[in-house]
Amino acid sequence: MQTGQSPKIINLHGPLTIDRSSSLKVEIAEALESHDNVLLSISLVEELDLACLQVLYAAKAEAAALGKDLHFLGSVPSKVTNRLKACGFLRGPSEHAEGFESALVGF
Amino acid sequence: MAQSLDRFKATFREEAFELLAQLEDKLLELESQPLNGELINAAFRAIHTVKGSAAMFGFDAVSGFAHEMETVLDLCRGGSLSITKEFIGLALKGRDQLRQLMEFEDGVPADIAEESESLLRRFKEFSAKATGSSPTTMAPQDKGPAGGAPAGSAPILQARTYRITFKPAGDVFKNGTKVLNLIEELAGLGQADVFPHMEGVPRLREIDPEACYAWWEILLTAQVDENAIRDIFIFVEDQSELRVAAVAEGDGGEIRRLGDILVDRGAVSAGALRDALGSQKRLGEVLVENHVVSKPQVESALVEQEHLKKVQQRSETAGSIRVASDKLDALVDLVGELVTLQARLAQTSLDMQDGGLASVSEQFERLISQLRDNTMSIRMLPIGSTFNKFRRVVRDLSIELGKEAELLTEGAETELDKTVIERLGDPLVHIIRNSVDHGIEKPEVRERGGKPRAGAIKLSARHSGAYVLIQVSDDGKGLDRDAIRSKAIERGLISPTQEVGDQDLYQLIFEPGFSTAKTVTTVSGRGVGMDVVKREIDSLGGSAQLSTSPGAGMTVTLKIPLTLAIIEGLLVRIGSEFFVVPLSSVDGCIEVLRDTLASMGRRRIISYRDELVPFVPLRSFFSSEKDGGKAEDEPEIEQIVIASAQEYKIGLVVDQVIGDYQTVIKPLGRLYRDVDGVSGATILGDGTVALILDVNRLAFVVQRESGIKAALGEA
What is the ipTM of this complex? Predict the structure, then answer.
């Protein structure tokens, strides 16, 4: 088992919809188990629905409970931010991963 | 999952049918009020919701067609397309087409697809007229939000602020609902502040990735009513918690106090807020001390505040739920079984002569009677739900026949059992079609006769005891007495020399094959219709009456029992057989010596409350006499139950009147269905079957067979 040193990058791509929510959960859970630092690259995400968004929130809570780091990486597609803004999830600039993370309500 | 999806599709269909009925209603109203913005908005909302949900459930043909209709209606909303009779005609056809398309989920037959295409071409022609573009190049435009006022259109509703709480059910994703789409659509209605709550999302190891944990609070200021908001959630409302409360009228109105908002949101309890506020002086006290306002002024304002709070609380608690009608039918069946079982319990307690058991049985009876009344009241629906269908019939038919006619309705709120309403539809359509076809004259004829060009057909409903009276009247030419008489003679229903009263003569149009129309049209005149009406109304346990005055119109009155499932009856016995007379038709009971009756011979008339009433010995009517002679168990004193049948009274001679009886109506088997004078059966406490008497039919048969009229004349 690899621990700590290098961050684990998960490249998310395509539509992140309910069909993907279970595998996404498993993928992030495994990464958190083996790494102290997990980065989620979201530049190639085409769609993000509520089921997967909840998995991302759950992952953040899991990381915090385990004392590990989980962050986003890369630029955020406007298709994703526009929808999240309309649904009240984003407060503030969110084009880049860092801003996106701090703008996500309750993340 | 597939099964639950089917269930949601069924719900979608059911609700889409309701929306299409609403659309039809609004379009018909628009025809007479083409400038009513609220009606245009309502029609638009209906079609928009159908479109959205059809797309969600994969009814692509419906959603595509609805999209084009929505585009045209949107032009009407914006004022760039004016609403004409021609447009309403097309829109109604579009509605019918949508109704038809709802039947096909996976592919539409070629002929129907062709119809759709042809209608869509016409819609496009309409919008092309409005936009000045060529019909084929018109770009589909989706204005998105239901009910949101488009730019340029006059504001119709005043802007209101709503607080919306939406907590989707945990399994909301399972039916394919895209929750974020709903929130987006809602936010699109106006100015919205959306607060998602994700605090319920558990840690990754605990999360069910296919369950919903998020919920929302949304403050929305928009020119829409509450229905427009609820429409968005129409397919998830049953499994979600949705609260919509108007916070303020206008642009937010008065700024609410922080304490109130915190309490409303449940962030702080009213008690905690009171404690915190208790440590400081109340605003009213400060104002009074500073002589800014008087004490009474403060008190009066506090009363107003209290009132508004109460009103708001009341409006939040009112609500209703949607229940599948088969569940309701099952409930009525179960109540019916309980009523039957209770009768058996009462009988057993009587046989056992046990005081304790009798007391339980009585309490049981009281409870069951309440349960029965409650259950029956749930099945009651306002008859107005079927009125829209008739408005459409009048409209289409008058156009087809080159006439002008308008349907006026009254008493739409009158409630009737759901089954009765369903079965009334066809007879009423027949009567209304007859009125338009035979009653209402052509506009020019009406003008010559000093009548307005447009004929009026009035459909009204009102309660009358255990019945509902439904009247269809028109201001047409009325019935032609002479034509009916000669037709009746021709058909051998009366003899050429026979004198028949007007009322009896008019009733003949309910006979099979009776039509005085000189020409047979596609609408009526074949003599099929009114007899069907009569048969259907009879089978409902009701009656049909007709009155007319030449040149001034005709009125058909239907008297329909409120319910068909459980009735109050009077249990009677003849020999060893039991019968039930519906209590609503019972007028009274009298006792007569058997010898007195026997001495009357064939003149079977008795005096009852200064009225001569014909009677029928049910023993002989139902051939209960053994070997045609006098039965051994025939009592010395006979009972006569006086029952009202339409405008006549009739006496029913029985051996014994047992008492009132809650009667669960069971249909008759094939063998007994055509027995004259019996409308159904019921099961008594000891399991015996009792037949339910059809008093109207008995009266008719007695009149026909024994020539009561003549007897009355002699007496």
Answer: 0.94
